[in-house]
Write a structure and sequence with these properties.
It is a single chain. The protein has 200 residues and is an alpha/beta fold. Helices cover 16% and strands 29% of the residues. It contains four helices and eleven strands; from the N terminus they run βαβαββαβαββββββ. Helix 4 links the parallel strand 5 and strand 6. The longest helix is centred in the middle third of the chain and has 10 residues.
Length: 200
């Protein structure tokens, strides 16, 4: 209440394999005082149809909050496999929003091999580097990481975990502030202590 935010994003692994919990977590999220957005993780093992039935959005979708475009990409399936996002959809969206002030991308499974849990998608970064208005790419898959990997000048942010049974020693969340000068301030909360502050 004292520091309102424009939106909240839950970047996959909302549940752990058991589909009956998805409506329950949605009921919890619906109580939030701000808009929120979700992506499917490899542990959200439900079909595209069921996902849309619960969340009323397709697996790949975009939206705009103030001057920022959010691209929410799907990187798994009902089996929980590690997959690439739909690169044709991604290219179309980035081209459509090439004049937007800023873009945030949410990709549960990293597509650049930063860790053993990532996959290598040839062409993924080749697409991204053509669009300088992408401010950051967010990942939710490596729950034990809460930092930033830079590729050229593009930050790939890892957001630890808000729950679950493995990951960082704390359950927290990432805050991102877009500054008037175009820079970005980001840090983790643990859940009330500020950690790992970076200006990008």
């Amino acid at each position: 209440k004292s520091q309102p935010v424009d939106f909240c994003a839950f970047n996959g692994d909302l549940i752990h394999n058991e589909k009956q919990f998805l409506p329950q977590i949605k009921a919890k999220f619906d109580g939030l005082p701000m808009p929120y957005f979700v992506s499917r993780g490899n542990h959200d093992m439900v079909s595209a149809d069921y996902w849309k039935e619960i969340w009323n959005t397709p697996l790949h979708h975009s939206t705009t909050v103030k001057d920022t475009v959010l691209l929410i990409c799907d990187t798994s399936n009902e089996k929980g496999e590690y997959l690439s996002p739909d690169l044709n959809w991604l290219k179309t969206q980035l081209e459509q929003h090439k004049n937007a002030k800023s873009i945030f991308m949410f990709v549960h499974i990293p597509q650049v091999t930063f860790t053993k849990n990532c996959i290598d998608t040839p062409g993924f970064y080749e697409i991204l580097k053509k669009y300088p208005n992408i401010k950051a790419v967010f990942h939710g898959h490596d729950h034990d990481l809460d930092g930033c990997k830079m590729v050229d000048k593009l930050p790939f942010l890892f957001d630890a975990h808000a729950g679950g049974n493995w990951g960082t020693a704390y359950n927290g969340f990432r805050v991102v502030e877009l500054m008037k000068d175009g820079s970005m301030l980001t840090y983790m909360m643990n859940p009330t202590e500020k950690l790992n502050e970076q200006k990008l």
